């Protein structure tokens, strides 16, 4: 009788441990956070710069420089890049470069 009671107790303890592990909160791969961020002169006057990196490996960087300030040829020169890690494990990077954006066109 004691052996049966010990066996039942052991089974109960093992099942309780398994239930505890299964009930623990699971991490969600969709919980993406920003791990690095930088902003410079983003006040809407002149040029600007920003960049960020996320916990999933996605990165973006953009810099704009005001050209011919105060003239009718005033424009922004914008360069930047965007990259991400695809489900296949490869990193893909796209670069942008727009040397002249007339501010009246915005």
TrEMBL record:
A GO term, aspect molecular function:
structural constituent of chitin-based larval cuticle
List where the protein spans the membrane: none
Q: Which UniProt keywords apply?
A: Cuticle, Signal
The terms describing its cellular component in GO are: chitin-based extracellular matrix
Family matches, as InterPro entries:
Cuticle_Struct_Prot, Insect_cuticle
Q: Where is the signal peptide?
A: 1-23
Q: What is this protein called?
A: CU12 protein
Top-down, what is the taxonomic lineage of the species of origin? Eukaryota, Metazoa, Ecdysozoa, Arthropoda, Hexapoda
